[in-house]
Write a structure and sequence with these properties.
By secondary structure, this protein is an alpha/beta fold. The protein is built from ten helices and 15 strands. Helices cover 31% and strands 18% of the residues. The strands form two sheets. It has an eleven-stranded mixed beta sheet, with helices on both faces. Strands 1-2-4-3 form a four-stranded antiparallel beta sheet. Helix 5 packs parallel to helix 8.
Length: 449
């Protein structure tokens, strides 16, 4: 009787193992083999090789809410992959957001595919507020995109009329007021687009006032640098740590300019020289002292804005243009020209280029939200080399693992592969599901429609 019981247990274990093995093959192994076969055939049809070696498919990852990536090991340089981007899109029948190369392993290439389009409208919510020295701007394919004031002290916001420049300025002004920064606005339209801030922000629209404001900021920049030299520090954060009382600490100052071209196009040569010299000095020297310029401009004409000012303002937010030249002036390429005609859709340039749906700002309230986290979404220890350092994840999660490398050697694909091109499986799960942090989480269901 005992032997019969043992035999029954063994049979059950064997059957269970077989069932689990079959399930694992169907769910994981077979889709992976189909995906590898698909890419082998695709590269062979394109004759995409180097020295007889075709790229070798490694894995698929779903790191972000709007992105999935296909990872390959290859001997083809990144430049060759980028040249074939349009051809890859035709074979995959999907939109490629970017093609990245791992900084540590140059043979590892990732194709980033859009899994779903960015939202057409994205309402601002006070939960995006942050006590750190950063501004939340919108959502790109990699997550929330931010402007770090320590790294990006000044910014251009370019775009045609109706693109949403003033809306971005209002969103940034609201965040600056929440952070208790000193805020001033230059707007020759008398501030009609910023009426909700008239009791909180000084609005300048006369040249005499504008010249005085810019000169005062230049003087204060020099004064703050002298204070830094006295206590032997080189930035505002270290200075505020060194002073003995809050009365001696320095506040950050933000000067918003709604239309820079309108300000600089004056025919008075003396006034024009004063304005240009002041703005050039501020963009060159005020980074460390906590004085920042955020400048809107409709068309970034090189005859109006000097090259010195442009070189000192690397952070660019550029809306759609109907011709390529303004995009080339502002971004150095045609990416803004190819943006979809969606209000609030901008191309952001820092170290890279990111298509972004900027927050839509409805109304201003100075009341501070109850659930604002000091370190909300601010991380610096990224292990994902392809994530921009100023784009933060849509949900705070555990530190993700590196892609699982299935095989490390790069074989030469022989001619025995089947010629028929299989359809690529849409998804298969090779990574564990993301673990949500217990600290903070946003609900994005309102704009994922």
């Amino acid at each position: 009787m005992h032997a019969l019981y043992v035999l029954l247990v063994v049979v059950v274990i064997i059957i269970s193992a077989i069932v689990l093995g079959i399930r694992h093959y169907i769910v994981h192994i077979r889709p992976f083999k189909q995906m590898r076969e698909f890419f082998n055939n695709m590269f062979e049809e394109m004759n995409f090789q180097t020295g007889g070696r075709y790229p070798y498919f490694l894995s698929q990852e779903n790191k972000y809410d709007y992105i999935k990536s296909y990872n390959f090991t290859t001997y083809c340089p990144l430049r060759t992959w980028l040249e074939k981007k349009d051809l890859f899109e035709m074979h995959l029948n999907e939109k490629i957001i970017d093609i990245k190369q791992d900084e540590k392993n140059k043979r590892l290439i990732s194709i980033h595919i859009e899994t779903e389009p960015l939202p057409g409208i994205l309402n601002w919510n006070d939960r995006y507020l942050n006590k750190a020295n950063v501004f939340a701007i919108g959502i790109c394919h990699y997550g929330i995109i931010i402007m770090r004031l320590e790294r990006d002290p000044h910014a251009f916001i370019a775009g045609e009329t109706g693109s949403g420049k003033s809306n971005i300025l209002k969103c940034l002004i609201s965040q600056a007021l929440y952070k208790d920064y000193e805020v001033e606005l230059i707007d020759f339209k008398r501030g009609v687009s910023f009426t909700e801030f008239r009791d909180k922000v000084i609005i300048h629209y006369e040249y005499t006032d504008v010249i005085r404001v810019l000169r005062d900021l230049v003087t204060e920049t020099s004064d703050r640098l002298d204070k830094f030299r006295t206590v032997e520090v080189d930035n505002i954060n270290d200075y505020n740590k060194m002073v003995s009382s809050n009365a001696e600490s320095l506040k950050r100052k933000i000067l918003f300019i709604d239309e820079l071209a309108e300000l600089l196009k004056t025919r008075d040569k003396e006034i024009s020289k004063i304005l240009n010299d002041s703005i050039e000095t501020l963009t060159r020297l005020s980074r460390a002292v906590g004085i920042h310029l955020i400048m809107g401009i409709q068309r970034p004409d090189s005859t109006i804005v000097s090259g010195q000012i442009k070189n000192n303002v690397p952070f660019r937010i550029c809306g759609r243009f109907v011709d390529k030249e303004p995009s080339r002036i502002m971004l150095g390429n045609d990416s803004a020209y190819h943006l979809p005609n969606i209000k609030g859709r901008f191309m952001i340039k820092e170290d890279d280029f990111f298509e972004t749906q900027c927050f839509y700002f409805k109304s201003f309230k100075i009341d501070k939200p109850e659930n604002t986290d000091t370190n909300m979404r601010v991380k610096t220890d990224y292990d994902l080399l392809d994530r921009p350092k100023h784009a933060l994840p849509l949900t705070i999660s555990e530190k993700p693992q590196q892609p699982k490398i299935v095989e490390t050697k790069t074989p030469t694909i022989n001619n025995a592969l089947p010629k028929q091109k299989p359809e690529p499986p849409k998804t298969f799960d090779t990574e564990p599901k993301k673990q949500q942090s217990k600290e903070f989480e946003f609900d994005f269901s309102e704009f994922k429609k």
